[in-house]
Amino acid sequence: MSRLIPLLLLTAATALAAPPALGQATSLKSPEALAALDKMGAALRTHQMVNVHADITAEDALNSGEKLQYSGTVDIVARRPNLMKLAVRMGTSERVFYYDGKTLTTTSPNLGYYASVPAPATIAETLKMAEERYGVEVPLADLFAWGTDPAQAAKLTSAFKAGEETIGGQACDHYAMRQPGADWQLWIRQGDDALPCKLVITTRADPALPQYSAVYRWSDEPPPEAAAFTYTPPAGSTMITMGTIKPASARKGN
């Protein structure tokens, strides 16, 4: 599962006095947990320069019920609001996205193919367009959208603090959330700069309960200058067309 569904603009609901005991389910939404999600969304938006590496793990279930794990990495450098380069590596495959404020280009360096389309004025709008118009789900895209869509609030059915842990040398608060079809665990850096440290998503819609995880390493090194976000095809590269998909409303009518 490569897509991180936005959950971070959820308003406070019923108070939860203490985290539930291990193994005990909860249907309550803790104001502390919801406030932590809001704080993380605000912290992400304050970072105009983004430089983050993520080690990702995805699971796939075989018909036999056996699960396989696949490991990879995602590297993002960006200058808000309109410059981004994102590289995804899984096994021997690599895909790189370039956004220069006017054009979104997706490339497969190993295969020598690339496709370019006109893009909106911001990173968040461009990534939303890529998913809705072209069916391109960009890993960690929600790092640029968290905290901007209040409509997601109704999806959350449970949220509570599960403890405190150290992730990558950072002291983090551990939160657990549930929404229809998925469970979420999120570790958020303690302190004012409340960036995400780790994310785990469990898909409950699948009986095998496959998981997706991302462990983030944030860097203070500034992203490259503007020219690095414009794709220049190397000699021998082949330009292809990025196919569009039907709007969601049209697909539902089929």
Q: Topology of this structure?
A:
Elements lengths: L30 H16 L2 E13 L5 E13 L3 E8 L2 E7 L3 E6 L4 E6 L4 H12 L23 E10 L2 E10 L2 E8 L6 E8 L7 E8 L19 E2 L8 H5 L2
Parallel strand pairs: 6-12
Antiparallel strand pairs: 1-2, 1-11, 2-3, 3-4, 4-5, 5-6, 7-8, 8-9, 9-10, 10-11
CATH class: Mainly Beta
- Helix/strand order, N-terminal first: HEEEEEEHEEEEEEH
Shape descriptor: globular
Strand order in the sheet with the most strands: 7-8-9-10-11-1-2-3-4-5-6-12
Instruction: Estimate the helix proportion, in percent.
Output: 10-25%
**CATH topology term:** outer membrane lipoprotein receptor (LolB), chain A
Portion in beta strands: 35-45%
Helix and strand content put the structural class at: mainly beta
Number of helical stretches of at least 4 residues: 3
Please state the average pLDDT score. Answer: 85
Features:
outer membrane lipoprotein receptor (LolB), chain A; 12-stranded mixed sheet; 39% strand; mainly beta; 254 residues
Write up this protein:
With 254 residues, the protein is mainly beta. The protein has one domain: outer membrane lipoprotein receptor (LolB), chain A, CATH 2.50.20. It is 13% helix and 39% strand. It contains three helices and twelve strands; from the N terminus they run αββββββαββββββα. The chain has helices spanning 31-46, 123-134, 248-252; strands at 49-61, 67-79, 83-90, 93-99, 103-108, 113-118, 158-167, 170-179, 182-189, 196-203, 211-218, 238-239. Strands 7-8-9-10-11-1-2-3-4-5-6-12 form a twelve-stranded mixed beta sheet, with helices on one face. The radius of gyration is 19 Å and the shape is globular.
